């Protein structure tokens, strides 16, 4: 039997694109099972990496490595995750997504098991790299399973949930990672990762997706592009992950790596630009609508990095994760609420309003945090962090759907869209952390210099404090000045995030108003951007 021969489908069963599953009718129990498996698989794709990312200081101590060395763990995940998305779409079109997922889930489990017995930074990096490869498949697989749980008329809701489940990974990781560390230090995290991988593998094997069409799509030039693009992204990921730690201008290899990444990525894009059947359609990617979408998602990932700033701020005040648990429950509730409301109210005409509202909510949340003091405690951040969690979850689903219509119109651009969305989400997270962290360090130095200028022995209060404590009093005063400088710097970060969210909102609003004025038919313009995705999702199943 020729697996690449066209199959005959009923009209409502036809797959959206080669490589995606067909859409037969399911009973209600089976729909519930698909939804549960979709959630488990999607969470597995993000939670393992989130557990490591939020516990880097603890892993650093357990592994006995320097701060610069532990930063290779999140970098290794992004290196492989972004690169594998370049081949994943064509792999599932030619061989099926199931084969790819099962292969890398098994690889991920085996490498995790090996790391439990080989205690070292090298094996930890290998686990992160394997998780990045499997995570690239699990994100899409979770979306496909979730879509199978919904009838055709509610397929848009399924798409929002399938994409949005991954937004729950970070707050979930903060909620119970301390218990895992208490259970077995770093091994507790990796035992949990191993359990997730095995549960997902069991679910995928027990409940199979409906079959889809398969076609021959790989070309020899695809692997040349991958051979240039993958190391280019790896170098860029290393720069973004470690640049702030080793400091951008103080370490020569950062400049060499950045230059190398630019050369390699540009070479890959130059090859693709001149191919008849490109893997990455550069002309499509620079289309104003697609470029605007990518820029908006990238900026939002920077805005969402405010959460890491909140953690850093509370740690400056001397608080640990156990004292922030209620705060993370609030953030989790906000993310769930944003995800549910986004799914309930999603429609092509409502997408612009949802995106603008989510940005306004995040801007408000960040602004509320910008007047923190040394008396601020987690309970003072409940509302602002709820708003940030809510806005972030509300944004991601409509953003994905607003860009998917262009893919349905030109299916050959599926790889380009997948890579673009992955880069803006995954690499954007590294970029956001790097930018906010760098800005915080820069502002801390500024505020520290201002505060130190006013700490003079001519000030009676300063002189009295030093005389009362001697050398210990001087150290205490210096520590207090450093803490206050950090608090002021984090306030600057929160304010900058506010400005960035408002700037992004203004850009989107200007675009919507301009499009409406030019066309004089706002609804038709909005439907032109997202209606094709709606029609496709109503007839089948996503990307």
TrEMBL record:
**Keyword Glycosyltransferase included in the entry's annotation:** no
Keyword Membrane present in the record's keywords: the answer is yes
Q: What is its main location?
A: membrane
Q: Which UniProt keywords apply?
A: Membrane, Transmembrane, Transmembrane helix, Transport
Q: Tell me where the signal peptide lies.
A: none
Q: How does it sit in the membrane?
A: Multi-pass membrane protein
Q: Where do the TM regions start and end?
A: 32-52, 72-91, 103-122, 128-147, 159-177, 189-209, 221-241, 253-271, 325-345, 351-369, 381-408, 414-435, 493-514
Write down the InterPro entries for this protein, in alphabetical order: MFS (IPR011701), MFS_trans_sf (IPR036259)
Compartments where found: Membrane
Specify the protein name: MFS transporter
Species? Duganella levis
Q: What is the lineage of its organism?
A: Bacteria, Pseudomonadati, Pseudomonadota, Betaproteobacteria, Burkholderiales
